[in-house]
Amino acid sequence: MIKVNLNVLLAERNLSVAEFADAVQLSPANVAVLKNGRAKAIRFSTLERICRVLNCSVGEVLEFIDEEPAS
Prior knowledge:
This protein is mostly helical. The protein has a single domain, classed as 434 Repressor (Amino-terminal Domain) (Orthogonal Bundle). The chain has helices at residues 6-12, 17-24, 28-35, 44-54, 58-61, and strands spanning 2-4, 62-64. Strands 1-2 form a two-stranded antiparallel ribbon. It is globular.
């Protein structure tokens, strides 16, 4: 599973969804889809803008969670 950590990053930076959406050139609805983990895909160009605006790495935005039991 891929977890999107936008909630945490926005809270740490005191950014509202509207401010963030404007800065990364996305609609607030699309930011909500990302924030709530309902996105099925993300463009690299969008991910680049997110990282640039939040001054973070891809690994801080997206996190891999292994849900399979260890063998």
